[in-house]
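Why should sequence recovery work at all? Because a backbone constrains its sequence more than one might expect. Tight turns favour small or flexible residues, buried strands favour hydrophobic ones, and helices have their own preferences. The token representation captures these environments compactly. In the example below, the structure is given first.
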């Protein structure tokens, strides 16, 4: 009997662990944490994790998985990883983001997280440089990739409609939900008094504050100017509440500030800047309502995080958000400020409705896991 040939698989792990991670980086981190052990069980694979610098968070690797650091200050994917593929060819490459190297194996699998830059009304969300790069790199990924992984049916439909992508190329793999086991379970977490006080001071809050929470990059795409305006309507009946916008600044941040100033909400809206994982957990426990009325999302992981913390959620009725939220959230038109305001009021005042959403949120959350995402990704890589 002939011995099965060994498949040489490479994975772009450059986003596996970065300082102040956001969406794509968290996707790489959680997916690879579950995918690496699955790859390790296939003894007919030799797996190389390519990265720009040594990763201190890489877990103990199986015998058939190794890390290779290719140091270069700039153009790592387009130049340095391309040269690696040219001079040390492999059978298959997996890129957990949309940018492919110039030289790549015939069998290359790529994840396209969203195409917000192509959506009507999103033209001013990205600067010219990033917009051109995203347009070119996504077009190239559609043309060159053997398989394309997307996080929702919504993104799949966008690729088919806008890029005329062959549906046979596309595989939908939902992201996982947050890990709520062990010390991550808020039911068993006790914040030491000094740590709690320190976080409240750092975040500009007091222990008695009632808060509506948003977590994510503070940018135009997230529709935060309209959230602020909707919150202003909500404040007329609930003047003691605060809106917390937790995340680092992005393109369009100035418009959010301008709206806060225009409505005189400087004392009612708190902007925390980038938050640590501990601070995010603390805010999710503290908030009464989670608001995420984005204009476009490829997936919307914060929605699942709010479900995990048993918080009622307001999100948008467009893009992937109804697909991810199911029946477990108040769905508002992101362009209608009055709908956002009404939704916030209902998520504070209607106890029966709140309980129903929390119950539905638990059911919806059960549909998503990183372990499942890793298994499905493995199946795609070994098709």
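From this structural description, the recovered sequence reads:
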């Amino acid at each position: 009997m002939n011995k099965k040939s060994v498949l040489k698989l490479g994975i772009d792990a450059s986003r596996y662990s970065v300082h102040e991670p956001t969406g794509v980086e968290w996707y790489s981190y959680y997916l690879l944490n579950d995918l690496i052990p699955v790859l390790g069980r296939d003894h007919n694979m030799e797996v190389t994790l390519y990265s720009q610098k040594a990763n201190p968070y890489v877990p103990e690797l199986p015998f058939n998985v190794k890390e290779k650091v290719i140091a270069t200050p700039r153009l790592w994917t387009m130049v340095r990883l391309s040269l690696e593929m040219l001079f040390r060819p492999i059978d298959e490459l997996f890129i957990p983001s949309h940018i492919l190297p110039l030289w790549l194996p015939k069998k290359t699998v790529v994840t396209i997280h969203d195409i917000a830059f192509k959506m009507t009304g999103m033209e001013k969300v990205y600067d010219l440089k990033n917009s051109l790069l995203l347009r070119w790199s996504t077009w190239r990924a559609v043309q060159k990739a053997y398989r394309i992984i997307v996080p929702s049916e919504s993104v799949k439909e966008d690729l088919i409609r806008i890029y005329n992508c062959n549906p046979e190329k596309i595989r939908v793999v939902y992201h996982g939900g947050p890990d709520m086991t062990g010390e991550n379970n808020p039911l068993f977490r006790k914040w030491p008094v000094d740590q709690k006080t320190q976080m409240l001071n750092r975040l500009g809050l007091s222990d008695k504050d009632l808060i509506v929470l948003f977590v994510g990059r503070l940018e135009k795409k997230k529709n935060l100017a309209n959230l602020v305006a909707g919150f202003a309507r909500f404040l007329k009946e609930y003047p003691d509440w605060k809106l917390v916008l937790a995340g680092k600044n992005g393109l369009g941040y100035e418009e959010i500030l301008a709206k806060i100033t225009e409505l005189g909400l400087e004392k009612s809206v708190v902007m925390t800047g980038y938050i640590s994982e501990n601070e995010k957990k603390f805010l999710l426990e503290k908030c009464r309502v989670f608001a995420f009325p984005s204009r476009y999302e490829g997936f919307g992981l914060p929605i699942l995080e709010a479900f995990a913390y048993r918080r009622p959620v307001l999100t948008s009725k467009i893009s992937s958000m109804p697909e991810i939220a199911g029946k477990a959230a108040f769905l508002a038109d992101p362009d209608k400020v009055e709908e956002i305001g009404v939704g916030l009021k209902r998520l504070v005042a209607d106890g029966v409705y709140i309980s129903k959403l929390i119950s539905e949120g638990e059911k919806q959350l059960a549909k998503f896991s990183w372990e499942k995402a890793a298994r499905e990704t493995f199946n795609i890589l070994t098709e």
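A few observations help interpret the result. The mean pLDDT is 92.
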